[in-house]
Write a structure and sequence with these properties.
The complex is a heterodimer.
Chain A lengths: L1 H12 L4 H16 L5 H12 L4 H31 L4 H8 L2 H5 L5 H38 L1 H6 L3 H11 L7
Chain B lengths: L6 H20 L1 H17 L3 E2 L2 E5 L4 E10 L6 E13 L1 H5 L3 E12 L2 E2 L18 H7 L7 H7 L4 H24 L4 H16 L5 H61 L9 H17 L1 H18 L19 E12 L7 E10 L3 H4 L3 E7 L7 E10 L5 E21 L4 E18 L2 E18 L5 H9 L4 E10 L4 E6 H65 L4 H20 L3
Parallel strand pairs in B: 5-7
Antiparallel strand pairs in B: 1-3, 2-3, 3-4, 4-5, 4-6, 7-8, 8-9, 9-10, 10-11, 11-12, 12-13, 13-14, 14-15
Helix pairs in contact in B: 4-9, 5-13, 6-8, 6-13, 7-8, 7-13, 8-13, 12-13
The chains are: A mainly alpha, B alpha+beta.
């Protein structure tokens, strides 16, 4: 647990690309919002693992958003129902219904479609907001935080030693 | 590009998901077996067991070995059992949720086979409201009551009446005898006559003699009057006694006749008891045959219907699936199926027959044609020809319509157990069966029926019931008969009506036997009643004759007394006056 937290802080405080962290948050959000056992989630995991997406933030975002999804399911259900019953889209849905890949993706499930649609709608804003927050954190907030008495106290703990050890490492999936 | 792609990550992904795919591939067959068992159990409504499932990837095919489907009505039996079943399934259609089976072959198909242990029943199908032949057999009783039980149970009145009559008669007889003893004897009557004649013949010549004569006559009349009163009393007693006794005799005869009529009623044989004998004998067996014949309607169609209903129920767990079914393809479609059905009739060599099925689905509107099925076999060792064909069509509203025809020629039946119960057992030892018929199915309701013609028939019977011997004798005389089978009611719970000329044949024989026996019993009852009545009547009849004679004698005596009492002495005077007048006339007129 300490290791995981240390990795997160290291990624946040290191020279890791803000885009890498932002993509981790955005993709983790989509993975968390949508039902786990879905075909598109395999694609998300493939993207996260294959490209230089920060996996710590990806899993953190996934965990947080999975919790949020329980509260947001009625919204996803409403959006999915609205889309699937929209008369203008009926031709598309009937065509997809005959495609094996679309059926495997469970496009006709209200929560699945609703959560994917909401995630796609929010992924770009989340991406840019996350990058903006990370960049500003590093340039303005990081140094002020380090001067705080609480941080000074933390620096004398075992956690800080672990953090220092992780910071000394190179490579791995987080960079 | 090199910086963009994280090769260790890609490798990890491939390893993880490749591992999952490998595990799924290794455990695909056990998983498929579990899934198939679960689905078929749901559709069957009772436990379904599968020994082994094999999956072939190209072309995609599933082979099921050792399929056993529990009969929900009789969990100790498998209603369907298949040794090997192979289905070639369209894989892409399967991915989009449709089961399209191009070819299905089933070997070793058996019905109603005993299970190793009773299967668990998930959905208890409604019990079929069929005629309970066992209850009918139990209520069937053509045994006539014995003579003793008839006499004991027919509310026989004669013996009590006889006893009452005998008591009353003794009292009346005593009264009669007492009255009779008071009667004057014949000698005394003659004496009265003699004495009166003497007085009348005395011809008194003067007034004194006349008065004396009259005095003597009066004395005699007083005596006669006293005796006449006794005679009258006797006649009154005799009249009452005779009338009462004659009334008793008539009452005894009437009571005896009424008792006999009641006994006759008890011994009367009710022809209604002989109806539906063919149902009692053949009901269970014919219903069993009909159920086998209706397997397509009774088993497959309801199962499809249940599958359709389950398919239509939406999944509401975290959202719902919305169907965009263009109604172009059926959800389930078995295009061609071939079955090797093994029939193992009782006491006969098992025979394998080929059955075929085309276009099995519950969405016939989408394929534009009905499901058809056929069974043909003309090479079985114990029949000459068997042909069964039919079709059914489930429309969009879920209504099922269809038809089924069958033709069976020259089926040799041997040692076919019809009924096996303690009170009665019957076996069709030998017979030749021809059968044909047609059943229609409209909106799930069956109608139609068929005929079963039995010839060269030989029955065997047994049982502890006393009327089993009636059946034995009656069945011995049957050489040939036919059974008309009517089928009606809901598809899931067909009703069978059985009519047969065997009823008439058996009823005629049994009625003759029973009537003969009833006549014998009635004769015994009549003899018993006659013996009792004749005992008392043989005593009463002679007595009545004697009493009537005594009454007649009393009446004659009373008449004599009346005549004697009319005699008067004044007659003597008148006679003398006439004599004197005659003599005077002779003197005066010279003899006029």
């Amino acid at each position: 647990m300490l290791g995981m937290l240390a990795k997160l802080l290291k990624a946040l405080n290191s020279e890791t690309s803000p885009w890498s962290l932002a993509w981790g948050i955005a993709l983790g959000m989509m993975l968390g919002f949508t039902p786990l056992l879905s075909l598109h989630n395999i694609v998300l995991v493939l993207i996260a693992f294959t490209f230089r997406v920060n996996l710590s933030f990806f899993f953190l975002s996934f965990a947080v958003c999975s919790g949020l999804a329980y509260a947001l399911d009625p919204l996803f259900d409403f959006v999915g129902e609205w889309l699937l019953t929209a008369s203008s889209l009926q031709g598309l849905w009937f065509a997809l219904y005959e495609l094996p890949l679309a059926r495997l993706a469970q496009f006709n499930h209200t929560i699945t479609l609703g959560s994917v649609a909401v995630s796609l709608l929010f992924i770009v804003p989340v991406l840019f907001i996350a990058r903006f927050v990370i960049v500003n954190y590093r340039s303005r907030i990081q140094k002020r935080i380090e001067k705080l008495p609480l941080v000074q106290l933390i620096k004398g703990t075992k956690f800080w030693a672990t953090y220092q050890k992780v910071s000394g490492l190179r490579g791995g999936f987080s960079s | 590009m090199k910086q963009m792609i994280r090769w260790p990550g890609l490798l990890a992904f491939v390893v993880v998901f490749g591992g999952i795919a490998l595990l799924l591939s290794i455990f695909l067959e056990p998983l498929a077996k579990t899934a198939l068992q679960s689905t078929l159990t749901r559709l069957n409504g009772a436990e379904v067991n599968i020994a082994e499932v094999e999956i072939q990837r190209a072309p995609f095919a599933v082979t099921v070995k050792g399929l056993e489907m529990t009969d929900p009505q009789t969990p100790e039996l498998n209603r369907l059992q298949v040794t090997t079943l192979r289905a070639e399934v369209a894989f892409l259609e399967l991915l989009i949720g449709r089961v399209h089976i191009q070819d299905l072959t089933a070997a070793g198909v058996r019905f109603a086979q005993p299970r190793a242990s009773a299967g668990a029943v998930r959905t208890r199908e409604p019990a079929q409201d069929q005629q309970n032949w066992r209850e009918r057999l139990e209520s069937f009783d053509i045994e006539l009551p014995s003579t003793e039980s008839v006499l004991a149970g027919a509310n026989i009145q004669t013996p009590a009446l006889i006893e009452q009559v005998e008591t009353q008669f003794k009292e009346r007889e005593a009264q009669f005898n007492t009255a009779r003893e008071q009667l004057p004897s014949t000698e005394k009557v003659e004496e009265y006559q003699q004495r009166i004649e003497t007085i009348l013949d005395s011809k008194p010549s003067n007034a004194r003699e006349l008065l004396a004569a009259r005095e003597a006559l009066k004395e005699i009349k007083d005596e006669i009057e006293a005796d006449r009163e006794r005679v009258r009393e006797f006649l009154a007693v005799a009249r009452g006694t005779l009338e009462a006794t004659q009334q008793d005799v008539r009452a005894i005869r009437q009571a005896s006749e009424q008792d006999l009529a009641r006994a006759q009623e008890l011994l009367r044989f009710d022809p209604q008891a002989l109806t539906e004998l063919s149902g009692i004998l053949f009901g269970q067996k014919v219903e069993q045959w009909a159920q086998y014949g209706l397997v397509a309607f009774d088993f497959i169609a309801p199962m499809l219907n249940r599958a359709q209903q389950e398919q239509q129920s939406p999944s509401r767990w975290e959202g719902r699936y919305i169907e965009f079914d263009g109604a172009t393809q059926p959800t389930f479609w078995l295009k061609n199926a071939a079955f090797d059905v093994i029939l193992e009739p009782q006491n006969a060599t098992p025979v394998s027959i080929a059955a075929s099925l085309k276009d099995l689905t519950w969405q016939h509107d989408r394929i534009g044609r009905a499901t058809t099925f056929a069974v043909n076999n003309d090479s079985a060792p114990w029949w000459q020809e068997l042909a069964l064909s039919g079709d059914f069509y489930v429309n969009a509203g879920g209504d099922i319509r269809g038809a089924q025809r069958w033709q069976l020629a020259g089926a040799a039946l041997n040692n076919l157990q019809l009924i096996e119960q303690t009170e009665f057992a019957a076996q069709l030892t030998e017979a030749l069966l021809n059968s044909q018929g047609e059943i229609a199915l409209n909106a799930g309701v069956l109608s139609g029926g068929g005929a079963l013609d039995f010839s060269s028939v030989d029955f065997g019977t047994g049982g502890e019931s006393s009327w089993a011997r009636y059946f034995e004798q009656a069945l011995d005389s049957v050489q040939a008969f036919d059974i008309q089978l009517g089928i009606s009611g809901e598809m899931a719970s067909p009703q069978f009506q059985i009519g047969s000329n065997l009823d008439n044949q058996l009823a005629s024989s049994l009625q003759n036997m029973a009537q003969q026996e009833a006549s014998d019993r009635l004769a015994e009852v009549r003899a018993s009643l006659n013996a009792r009545t004749e005992g008392v009547l043989s005593e009463l009849r002679p007595w009545l004759e004697r009493a009537e004679a005594l009454q007649a004698q009393g009446v004659a005596t009373e008449d004599i007394f009346a005549e004697l009492l009319r005699s008067e002495v004044g007659d003597v005077v008148d006679a003398e006056r006439e004599r004197l007048l005659r003599r005077l006339g002779e003197r005066l007129g010279g003899g006029g």
